[in-house]
Specification:
about 170 residues, alpha+beta, Aminopeptidase, seven-stranded mixed beta sheet, two-stranded antiparallel sheet, 11 strands, about 40% strand
């Protein structure tokens, strides 16, 4: 089995890849293709990254890093909002070179975060906290987001920007 990783800016995504992403996301979330396309158009910006993991020629992993800004001490700061982590059900237990596909895809995301902004935030279900903590994500109350109570906010590289008593709204 051969692994291929690729990051594509949203402005450069083609319809073929976008359709593969939507098909992969449909395994986890019950939204039509039309609704997914509408969401992409209204929520993703040109510089947002689609991180793709292919096994052989099959798209089997996907994440999105969305560029966002917030105001901290009168300065605009940029971060990544880590969004939509998914590995296709068929390949979740596959191990290549002693690594799970989720580990490989997460390392790509960490590399991209560190290359550009060093700081990222995510919102996840409480049952996923241990998975993200394995990659040095930390629970955080430093930003607000409208989600149900069973979701938790997490931050990557929180020491890079001091967020004490400051709230980010995304």
């Amino acid at each position: 089995m051969k692994i291929f990783l690729k990051s594509i800016k949203n402005k450069n995504i083609n319809k073929i890849i976008l359709n593969k992403i939507i098909k992969l996301k449909a395994e986890e979330w019950n939204f039509s293709k039309k609704i997914q396309l509408k969401w992409v158009k209204s929520n993703l910006q040109d510089e947002d990254l689609h991180n793709l993991l292919f096994l052989d020629k099959n798209l089997c992993g996907y994440t999105c890093l969305r560029e966002r800004t917030f105001l901290l001490k009168s300065k605009i700061k940029k971060i990544y909002y880590f969004d939509t982590f998914i590995i296709t059900k068929k390949y979740r237990s596959v191990i290549v070179n002693k690594k799970r596909l989720s580990d490989i895809l997460m390392k790509l995301n960490i590399k991209k975060i560190n290359e550009k902004y060093s700081l990222a935030i995510l919102v996840c279900n409480r049952k996923l906290i241990k998975f993200y903590e394995k990659y040095n994500w930390k629970k955080s109350k430093a930003f607000r987001i409208n989600k149900k109570k069973n979701y938790i906010r997490m931050v990557f590289n929180p020491k890079k920007i001091i967020l004490r008593n400051k709230f980010i709204t995304i």
